[in-house]
Amino acid sequence: MTFTQIEKTVATLRPQTQRKLMSYLVALELKRDEKYRAEITRRLNDRSPGAWIPLEKLERQLKLTR
């Protein structure tokens, strides 16, 4: 299967299934790349208010708003 075929297939999936796929891919990357895992962990542990953006802003940036 080519990447283009995978993209087309993923585009037809329901949003909930796409989110499960994203979670799976992130989990694979976390297992594979120690630096990536360390950076994600650092960011998740950063509780300073300036480190986080509001969900609404993230959705706008990702064009996820309905």
Structural Rg: 15 Å
Low-confidence stretches: none
Largest sheet: none
User: What's the overall average pLDDT, rounded?
Assistant: 90
Q: What is the 3D shape?
A: flat
Structural category is mainly alpha
Count, helices: 4
Q: How far is the N terminus from the C terminus?
A: 32 Å
Q: How much strand?
A: under 5%
Q: How many domain regions?
A: 1
Helix content: over 70%
Strand runs, count? 0
Instruction: Give the SSE string.
Output: HHHH
What does this structure look like?
This protein has four helices and no strands. It is mainly alpha-helical. It has one domain. The longest helix has 18 residues. The radius of gyration is 15 Å and the shape is flat. The model has no long low-confidence stretch (mean pLDDT 90).
Salient structural properties:
mainly alpha, 66 residues
Quick structural summary:
With 66 residues, this protein is an all-alpha fold. It has one domain. It is built from 4 helices and no strands.
What's the topology here?
Layout: H1 3-12, H2 15-32, H3 34-45, H4 55-62
Helix pairs in contact: 2-3
